[in-house]
Amino acid sequence: MNFYYLNSFFKKFNALLDTEFTLITLHSNVAKYNLFKYDPFYNDAPYIQTWFLDKQNSLPMMLDNLLLFKNLQDETYTFRRSCREGICGSCAMNINGINTLACINHIDINQTREYYIFPLPHMPVIKDLVVCMKHFYEQYKSISPFLQTQSMLSITPVFINNYFLSLSSNLEFIVGAAQTENIQTKKNRLLLDGLYECILCACCSTSCPSYWWNRDKYLGPAVLLQAYRWVIDSRDDFVMDRLSQLNDQYKLYRCHTILNCVQVCPKKLSPAKAISNIKTLLLLND
Protein backbone atom coordinates (compact mmCIF):
# COMPACT_ATOMS: atom_id res chain seq x y z
CA MET A 1 0.00 0.00 0.00
CA ASN A 2 1.26 3.46 -0.88
CA PHE A 3 1.71 5.54 2.28
CA TYR A 4 2.35 9.26 2.33
CA TYR A 5 4.26 11.01 5.07
CA LEU A 6 3.10 14.41 6.25
CA ASN A 7 6.53 16.03 6.55
CA SER A 8 6.76 17.29 2.99
CA PHE A 9 3.09 18.20 2.93
CA PHE A 10 3.34 20.64 5.81
CA LYS A 11 6.14 22.45 3.99
CA LYS A 12 4.02 22.73 0.85
CA PHE A 13 0.99 23.82 2.83
CA ASN A 14 2.94 26.60 4.56
CA ALA A 15 4.17 27.77 1.18
CA LEU A 16 0.60 27.94 -0.08
CA LEU A 17 -0.40 30.06 2.89
CA ASP A 18 2.39 32.52 2.07
CA THR A 19 1.15 32.92 -1.50
CA GLU A 20 -2.55 33.11 -0.72
CA PHE A 21 -4.14 36.07 -2.53
CA THR A 22 -7.65 35.99 -1.09
CA LEU A 23 -8.41 36.74 2.53
CA ILE A 24 -11.75 35.44 3.72
CA THR A 25 -13.28 37.29 6.62
CA LEU A 26 -15.44 34.92 8.59
CA HIS A 27 -18.87 35.97 9.72
CA SER A 28 -19.43 35.74 13.45
CA ASN A 29 -22.00 32.98 12.92
CA VAL A 30 -19.89 30.82 10.61
CA ALA A 31 -17.09 28.37 11.41
CA LYS A 32 -14.48 27.42 8.85
CA TYR A 33 -13.16 23.84 8.77
CA ASN A 34 -9.91 23.13 6.93
CA LEU A 35 -9.88 19.37 6.46
CA PHE A 36 -6.85 17.37 5.39
CA LYS A 37 -7.76 15.31 2.34
CA TYR A 38 -5.68 12.52 0.83
CA ASP A 39 -6.83 9.70 -1.39
CA PRO A 40 -3.96 7.67 -2.90
CA PHE A 41 -6.30 6.17 -5.49
CA TYR A 42 -7.34 9.60 -6.73
CA ASN A 43 -4.38 11.91 -6.25
CA ASP A 44 -0.86 11.38 -4.95
CA ALA A 45 -0.75 14.85 -3.40
CA PRO A 46 -2.83 15.76 -0.33
CA TYR A 47 -4.79 18.99 -0.18
CA ILE A 48 -7.01 21.04 2.11
CA GLN A 49 -10.77 20.82 1.71
CA THR A 50 -12.62 23.82 3.13
CA TRP A 51 -16.06 23.63 4.66
CA PHE A 52 -18.18 26.40 6.19
CA LEU A 53 -20.73 25.58 8.88
CA ASP A 54 -23.34 27.90 10.34
CA LYS A 55 -23.33 28.34 14.09
CA GLN A 56 -26.92 27.20 14.39
CA ASN A 57 -26.00 23.88 12.72
CA SER A 58 -22.81 23.32 14.70
CA LEU A 59 -22.74 20.28 16.98
CA PRO A 60 -21.01 20.18 20.37
CA MET A 61 -18.09 17.85 19.58
CA MET A 62 -15.62 17.79 16.71
CA LEU A 63 -16.46 14.17 15.89
CA ASP A 64 -20.14 15.10 15.52
CA ASN A 65 -19.23 17.83 13.04
CA LEU A 66 -16.95 15.51 11.09
CA LEU A 67 -19.80 13.03 10.79
CA LEU A 68 -22.04 15.89 9.68
CA PHE A 69 -19.49 16.86 7.02
CA LYS A 70 -19.24 13.24 5.86
CA ASN A 71 -23.03 12.87 5.63
CA LEU A 72 -23.78 16.20 3.95
CA GLN A 73 -20.68 17.15 1.95
CA ASP A 74 -18.28 14.31 1.22
CA GLU A 75 -19.28 10.70 1.78
CA THR A 76 -15.78 9.55 0.88
CA TYR A 77 -14.15 11.38 3.79
CA THR A 78 -12.50 8.79 6.01
CA PHE A 79 -11.62 8.72 9.69
CA ARG A 80 -11.72 6.24 12.55
CA ARG A 81 -14.28 6.42 15.35
CA SER A 82 -16.05 4.02 17.66
CA CYS A 83 -17.04 4.74 21.24
CA ARG A 84 -17.63 8.53 21.16
CA GLU A 85 -16.77 8.64 24.87
CA GLY A 86 -12.97 8.99 24.92
CA ILE A 87 -12.51 5.32 25.77
CA CYS A 88 -11.36 3.52 22.61
CA GLY A 89 -8.87 6.10 21.25
CA SER A 90 -9.89 5.45 17.64
CA CYS A 91 -10.61 9.07 16.67
CA ALA A 92 -7.18 10.47 17.57
CA MET A 93 -6.20 13.29 15.22
CA ASN A 94 -4.49 16.68 15.15
CA ILE A 95 -6.93 19.56 15.70
CA ASN A 96 -5.56 23.10 15.51
CA GLY A 97 -2.02 21.81 16.05
CA ILE A 98 -2.81 19.66 19.10
CA ASN A 99 -3.19 15.89 19.14
CA THR A 100 -6.47 14.95 20.77
CA LEU A 101 -9.59 12.80 20.47
CA ALA A 102 -12.26 14.24 18.21
CA CYS A 103 -15.06 12.76 20.32
CA ILE A 104 -14.12 14.79 23.41
CA ASN A 105 -12.89 17.91 21.61
CA HIS A 106 -15.51 20.52 22.42
CA ILE A 107 -16.53 23.02 19.75
CA ASP A 108 -17.06 26.58 20.95
CA ILE A 109 -17.74 28.73 17.92
CA ASN A 110 -17.80 31.86 20.09
CA GLN A 111 -14.10 31.41 20.86
CA THR A 112 -12.74 29.63 17.78
CA ARG A 113 -14.20 30.09 14.32
CA GLU A 114 -11.55 28.31 12.28
CA TYR A 115 -10.36 24.73 12.65
CA TYR A 116 -7.53 22.79 11.04
CA ILE A 117 -8.03 19.03 11.13
CA PHE A 118 -5.07 16.82 10.24
CA PRO A 119 -4.10 13.18 10.87
CA LEU A 120 -1.65 12.34 13.65
CA PRO A 121 1.72 13.86 12.68
CA HIS A 122 4.68 11.86 11.39
CA MET A 123 2.63 8.75 10.75
CA PRO A 124 2.05 7.06 7.37
CA VAL A 125 -1.31 8.22 6.05
CA ILE A 126 -3.55 5.59 4.49
CA LYS A 127 -6.47 7.84 3.58
CA ASP A 128 -7.61 11.25 4.84
CA LEU A 129 -7.36 11.13 8.66
CA VAL A 130 -6.59 7.40 8.88
CA VAL A 131 -2.96 6.61 9.70
CA CYS A 132 -1.17 3.27 9.75
CA MET A 133 -0.78 2.06 13.35
CA LYS A 134 1.01 -1.20 12.54
CA HIS A 135 4.44 -0.13 13.78
CA PHE A 136 2.94 1.37 16.94
CA TYR A 137 1.13 -1.87 17.80
CA GLU A 138 4.20 -3.96 17.04
CA GLN A 139 6.13 -1.88 19.56
CA TYR A 140 3.32 -2.41 22.07
CA LYS A 141 3.46 -6.16 21.45
CA SER A 142 7.22 -6.19 22.07
CA ILE A 143 6.81 -5.29 25.76
CA SER A 144 4.62 -8.36 26.48
CA PRO A 145 1.59 -6.40 27.75
CA PHE A 146 0.18 -9.11 30.00
CA LEU A 147 0.89 -10.65 33.38
CA GLN A 148 3.76 -13.13 33.38
CA THR A 149 3.86 -15.58 36.27
CA GLN A 150 5.92 -18.63 37.11
CA SER A 151 4.22 -21.32 35.04
CA MET A 152 3.37 -24.81 36.27
CA LEU A 153 3.48 -26.27 32.80
CA SER A 154 4.14 -29.91 32.09
CA ILE A 155 4.36 -31.43 28.65
CA THR A 156 3.27 -34.96 27.97
CA PRO A 157 3.61 -36.60 24.57
CA VAL A 158 0.37 -38.16 23.42
CA PHE A 159 0.20 -40.40 20.41
CA ILE A 160 -3.12 -40.41 18.67
CA ASN A 161 -3.02 -43.91 17.21
CA ASN A 162 -0.67 -46.30 15.51
CA TYR A 163 -1.34 -44.77 12.11
CA PHE A 164 -0.11 -41.29 13.08
CA LEU A 165 2.63 -42.70 15.27
CA SER A 166 4.92 -43.26 12.30
CA LEU A 167 4.25 -39.75 10.93
CA SER A 168 4.29 -37.41 13.88
CA SER A 169 3.37 -37.01 17.51
CA ASN A 170 1.22 -34.39 19.16
CA LEU A 171 2.05 -32.66 22.40
CA GLU A 172 -0.65 -32.27 24.98
CA PHE A 173 -0.11 -29.32 27.32
CA ILE A 174 -1.30 -30.01 30.83
CA VAL A 175 -1.42 -26.82 32.91
CA GLY A 176 -1.56 -27.28 36.65
CA ALA A 177 -4.29 -25.31 38.41
CA ALA A 178 -3.11 -22.54 40.69
CA GLN A 179 -3.42 -23.40 44.38
CA THR A 180 -4.20 -19.82 45.46
CA GLU A 181 -5.41 -16.58 43.93
CA ASN A 182 -2.88 -14.07 42.63
CA ILE A 183 -3.77 -11.54 45.30
CA GLN A 184 -2.82 -7.87 45.16
CA THR A 185 -3.03 -5.53 48.12
CA LYS A 186 -4.91 -2.24 47.93
CA LYS A 187 -1.66 -0.30 48.29
CA ASN A 188 -0.06 -2.17 45.39
CA ARG A 189 -3.21 -1.67 43.36
CA LEU A 190 -2.93 2.10 43.83
CA LEU A 191 0.42 2.00 42.03
CA LEU A 192 -1.43 1.22 38.80
CA ASP A 193 -3.51 4.40 38.92
CA GLY A 194 -2.47 6.76 36.14
CA LEU A 195 -1.18 3.82 34.09
CA TYR A 196 -3.97 1.36 33.33
CA GLU A 197 -6.20 4.16 31.98
CA CYS A 198 -4.05 4.52 28.84
CA ILE A 199 -6.16 3.79 25.75
CA LEU A 200 -3.28 3.59 23.23
CA CYS A 201 -4.59 6.44 21.11
CA ALA A 202 -0.96 7.41 20.24
CA CYS A 203 -1.61 11.12 20.84
CA CYS A 204 1.42 11.31 23.13
CA SER A 205 3.83 9.32 20.97
CA THR A 206 3.01 11.25 17.80
CA SER A 207 3.53 14.56 19.61
CA CYS A 208 7.03 13.58 20.78
CA PRO A 209 9.95 14.91 18.66
CA SER A 210 12.16 12.07 19.86
CA TYR A 211 9.62 9.61 18.47
CA TRP A 212 9.51 11.53 15.18
CA TRP A 213 13.26 11.20 14.79
CA ASN A 214 13.74 7.64 16.10
CA ARG A 215 10.38 5.90 15.75
CA ASP A 216 12.11 2.79 14.40
CA LYS A 217 14.06 2.35 17.67
CA TYR A 218 12.51 4.51 20.39
CA LEU A 219 9.41 2.92 21.93
CA GLY A 220 7.73 6.25 22.59
CA PRO A 221 5.74 7.60 25.56
CA ALA A 222 2.63 5.44 25.17
CA VAL A 223 4.44 2.10 24.96
CA LEU A 224 6.86 3.00 27.77
CA LEU A 225 3.97 4.00 30.01
CA GLN A 226 2.37 0.63 29.29
CA ALA A 227 5.69 -1.09 29.96
CA TYR A 228 5.95 0.58 33.37
CA ARG A 229 2.37 -0.49 34.10
CA TRP A 230 3.49 -4.14 33.95
CA VAL A 231 6.87 -3.53 35.64
CA ILE A 232 5.19 -2.01 38.69
CA ASP A 233 2.43 -4.64 38.93
CA SER A 234 3.09 -6.68 42.10
CA ARG A 235 1.49 -9.78 40.55
CA ASP A 236 4.09 -10.04 37.78
CA ASP A 237 7.05 -12.37 38.31
CA PHE A 238 9.30 -11.13 35.51
CA VAL A 239 10.11 -7.58 36.61
CA MET A 240 13.86 -7.94 36.09
CA ASP A 241 13.39 -9.42 32.63
CA ARG A 242 11.15 -6.51 31.66
CA LEU A 243 13.64 -3.95 32.95
CA SER A 244 16.49 -5.68 31.17
CA GLN A 245 14.55 -5.55 27.91
CA LEU A 246 13.96 -1.81 28.32
CA ASN A 247 17.55 -0.98 29.26
CA ASP A 248 18.57 0.30 25.86
CA GLN A 249 19.90 3.67 24.75
CA TYR A 250 17.25 3.93 22.04
CA LYS A 251 14.24 2.08 23.44
CA LEU A 252 14.19 4.15 26.62
CA TYR A 253 16.85 6.83 26.77
CA ARG A 254 15.76 8.81 23.70
CA CYS A 255 13.29 10.55 26.02
CA HIS A 256 14.54 14.09 26.69
CA THR A 257 11.63 15.14 28.94
CA ILE A 258 10.15 17.56 26.42
CA LEU A 259 6.74 16.86 28.06
CA ASN A 260 4.65 17.17 24.90
CA CYS A 261 3.20 13.80 25.88
CA VAL A 262 1.86 15.17 29.16
CA GLN A 263 0.28 18.20 27.50
CA VAL A 264 -1.69 16.30 24.85
CA CYS A 265 -2.80 13.15 26.72
CA PRO A 266 -6.63 13.10 26.56
CA LYS A 267 -6.76 10.97 29.72
CA LYS A 268 -4.56 13.43 31.66
CA LEU A 269 -1.84 10.82 32.27
CA SER A 270 1.90 11.44 32.61
CA PRO A 271 4.01 9.19 30.37
CA ALA A 272 7.08 11.29 31.24
CA LYS A 273 6.72 10.34 34.90
CA ALA A 274 6.43 6.65 34.02
CA ILE A 275 9.57 6.88 31.86
CA SER A 276 11.43 8.61 34.68
CA ASN A 277 10.38 5.86 37.09
CA ILE A 278 11.69 3.18 34.73
CA LYS A 279 15.04 4.97 34.57
CA THR A 280 15.11 5.19 38.38
CA LEU A 281 14.42 1.46 38.76
CA LEU A 282 17.21 0.65 36.31
CA LEU A 283 19.58 2.92 38.22
CA LEU A 284 18.73 1.26 41.54
CA ASN A 285 19.34 -2.20 40.06
CA ASP A 286 22.75 -1.41 38.59
Question: Any chance you could write out the topology, listing elements then pairs?
Answer:
Elements: H1 6-18, E1 30-37, E2 47-54, H2 62-72, E3 92-95, E4 98-101, E5 114-118, E6 125-127, E7 130-131, H3 134-142, E8 153-158, H4 162-165, E9 170-175, H5 186-190, H6 209-214, H7 220-231, H8 239-246, H9 260-264, H10 271-284
Parallel strand pairs: 1-5
Antiparallel strand pairs: 1-2, 3-4, 3-5, 6-7, 8-9
Q: What structural keywords apply?
A:
single chain, 286 residues, alpha+beta, Ubiquitin-like (UB roll), Fumarate Reductase Iron-sulfur Protein, Chain B, domain 2, two-stranded antiparallel sheet, 10 helices
Report what the structure shows.
The chain has 286 residues and is of the alpha+beta class. It has two domains: 6-131, Beta-grasp domain (Ubiquitin-like (UB roll), Roll); 134-146 and 185-284, Fumarate Reductase Iron-sulfur Protein, Chain B, domain 2, CATH 1.10.1060.10. It has ten helices and nine strands. It has helices spanning 6-18, 62-72, 134-142, 162-165, 186-190, 209-214, 220-231, 239-246, 260-264, 271-284; strands at 30-37, 47-54, 92-95, 98-101, 114-118, 125-127, 130-131, 153-158, 170-175. A five-stranded mixed sheet has the order 2-1-5-3-4, with no helix packed on it. A hairpin with a 2-residue loop joins strand 6 (125-127) and strand 7. Helix 7 (220-231) crosses helix 10. The model is unreliable at 1-5, 9-26 and 152-169 (pLDDT under 50).
